Give the backbone structure.
Amino acid sequence: MMKPRNSIAKSIFQKFKNVSNPRKPPFSSSSILESIPREKVDCLVIGAGIVGIAVAKELSVNHGRQVLVLDSAPIFGTGTSSRNSEVIHAGIYYPTNSLKASFCVRGKELLYKYCKDHEIPHKQIGKLIVATGLSEVPRLSTLMTRGIQNGVEGLRMMEGYEATTLEPELQCVKALWSPSSGIVDSHSLMLSLVGEAESHGTTFSYNTAVIGGHIEGNQIQIHVSGSNAIANWNGRSELDSELILIPKLVVNSAGLSAPAIAKRMKGLPDGIIPASHYARGCYFTLSNTKSPFKHLIYPIPEVGGLGVHVTLDLNGQVKFGPDVEWIKGIDDIPSFLNMFDYSVREDRANQFYPAIRKYYPSLKDGSLEPGYAGIRPKLSGPEEGPTDFVVQGEDIHGISGLVNLFGIESPGLTSSMAIAEHVAAKLLK
């Protein structure tokens, strides 16, 4: 699918191909800055996750712009985009008039249409959000009211016996039925979007890390290094820049490392960059048994996430998760290179069994196997309450042609194309 690189990508590729262990002084020195090669580009997208790819596709396909996408990984979609539930959300959970609510509802519409038009594997299987005790019923009613206010169609409250006619293994006193929820093959989706973007002139440069930038004459200049070079960084001196890109438009959609990159952009006001919080979520799969469910099953949401829920993949495999584990001490460089701990400890299953048995009491001991883990790029910590997506443009930071995307956690996959529409409108107004 990859086509020959254009001049800027050739420059990047050749530059980093020859980088072994650079020993230049830090890029903060003005004399060193002057000696670093520079390249002008039209649109630069930082991060090749689902949102970055969708933005690149939107700018190139629908607006005819020349786009360069940089990612520190060897291929697209290696972070949060490939480590989630692959659920197409309806738009129920999010405060009315929030970006999450509007982007989710609009994004769902765009996503289903794109998947249908491009034959992306997906299925609108519906979701049951369940109250397993009478004390949870008011919260279920609140979710329904909010979903209706957000424009979600088809929502219906069910008594427990009605829900069990759909799912005989389910136990609940009431359930909220969401028929527009579904699942999607996220890799096939990203692969298709990458192909479309490339066919309209977008170039993807992998193993290429953005390590910061500076503002010069109200124009942002982006500092780039090869991923191998910064992996060998000694941790004491400032990072070396191997190339400076001078784009007309920049979208910082780096996911987990978006705030860290923004903080390294000299001239960007520090006060407008939110603090980063990271919450790991583990998934377990159901082994040695036929799937007991045909629909998505969600408990009442918890702090930091939507609770340990039932997700099906397109082959019918059942997975449970994610849970919420807050992690600390993440430095810039590990976040630039996605060096997070994605291991799933077997003993975490001990916390899954009681959570799952609230709605699936027949779950047998020993039937859960470790699956995979993801990290949520959150903007609030434990007990701080949920936050909205942050789409930060010139009206906030004062820099023309720059949009920062912060806190793009769930429903980021569902919202990706709506976010792309919004970002393009913000940049090209």
